[in-house]
Amino acid sequence: MRNTKGLSGAAQDAYFRRVLKAQGSLSEEAREQLVRSLKRDIAQLRLRREPLPEAVLPASPSASETHHPQVPTPNAQAPIPGPAASFDPYSPNIVVLLRTQGRAAALAALAGVDSEHELRLLAREQRLSVAPDLSSPQELRAAIVNAAERRIANRVAAAS
Amino acid sequence: MTRFLAVSNRKGGVGKSTISVMLAHAAAAWGRQRVLLMDLDTQCNASLMLLGGEGWDKAARAGRTIADYFYDRFDKVAGDESTYVINNVGDVAHPRTARGRVSLLPGSQRLEDIQGELYLKQSKKDLHADAVALLVRGRMKRLMRHFGMDCDLVILDCPPGLSFAAQAALDMADHVVVPFRPDFVSQFALDRVALLIERVENAEQLASIPFPERRYACLPNCLTGAGHERLLIDQIALDHPLLTTRLPVLDGIARAFDWDESKKSMEQKYAEALPHLRKLHTEVFTGAQMRAQSA
Q1: B234-279 pLDDT, tens digit each
Q2: Do residues B175 and B215 make contact, with C-beta atoms less than 8 angstroms apart?
Q3: What is the least distance, in Å, from the CA of A88 to any CA of chain B?
Q4: Residues B116-129 pLDDT 10s
Q5: For residue A159, is pLDDT > 80?
Q6: Chain B touched by A95 (CB under 8 Å)
Q7: What is the chain B residue with the closest CA to A125?
Q8: Phi-psi category of B225—alpha, beta or left, where left has phi over 0 and alpha has psi -120 to 50?
Q9: Edge-to-edge strands of the sheet including B3-7?
Q10: Model confidence, pTM
């Protein structure tokens, strides 16, 4: 199994948003500005599947060493934030993505979420029902998008 | 020209009466408008907020409620609309020299029964049930319009559900504010009320009407800041025009409607809710949609 994976398009955007959201000092507007800037400059990311051990990471700069918020770049050796610190189960909004950009985009955005725990958390918080026996991220992603499709269909049916 | 603004949602408990009263106070105090609030809800909450329990009871005993008005008019009892209206209600002080004021056509618990009776009266004619319903609704609409004579703005506080009075109000309103709580069921409620307001039959027909041309705008209310609220609001925004005002759960709003006879300023009444109300007032009464409607 390869130890890195590529991200592009909606999945890449979702990754940028997740990482920047962990920077509490950034306003929403600043985050969106950075996402736009990163989207413009970066065609594809390659992420490590396992974060590097702390020992091999460079020490974080202190507040006095930097005047600008730290922005991750494809080559930066930043750790992938752990679920508790940075994972936002409300982003991306799967129903909105599915309706505005289609199934492929929704699946692509979910490709930025790797762990079963995070995928299940996202499904739970977005009220997208997935079967308890699924465990592979791929199956979970497909189940989440299927659930979002059912949810949209339910709403359309009720309104007719 | 008098504008008619309905505050409506078929779902209950979304803040229709509270928002109706807040908008009435704001339009009178800041917009210098002569406002009439028409309480179409049989719970009579707006009437209780503006008159207190005793004041409302006194009005009901004197036959000065919307139910009495409809009943009298369907029976062709002559009388001036103004005899049913109570002026200068509420506990916000408006300067004597200012034009702004809030008046009330009080609600009645008998309104639902009376609608049934009116339906039966009309059904004596040889008409199909749908035609009778249309007749009652049309008559109510015309009768409600009479109240536009002596004021700048009529706010129609609609009941949950879909009574003849609620349908008549939606028919006649120039603009409709639809408050909602961002929960799962609210999506369905908004979808349905939007069909009624725009007089279309399904989601496809609704989608063909551009947002700026719609008569309604939805108002997220009672927000707690939970993540799922953001999700639902984003989903709702795909199908319905939303106001940018967001009303959080605030003690200031809840406390504002404990009945109190002493008059006070808007600042005293609404406390920390005041900035939200200012934004709502600006958006509803000077917003592009309202301007377009009144043009």
Answers
A1: 999 999 999 999 999 988 788 778 778 888 999 999 989 999 999 9
A2: yes
A3: 9
A4: 887 887 776 667 88
A5: no
A6: yes
A7: B228
A8: left
A9: B101-105, B34-39, B153-157, B3-7, B175-180, B216-220
A10: 0.77
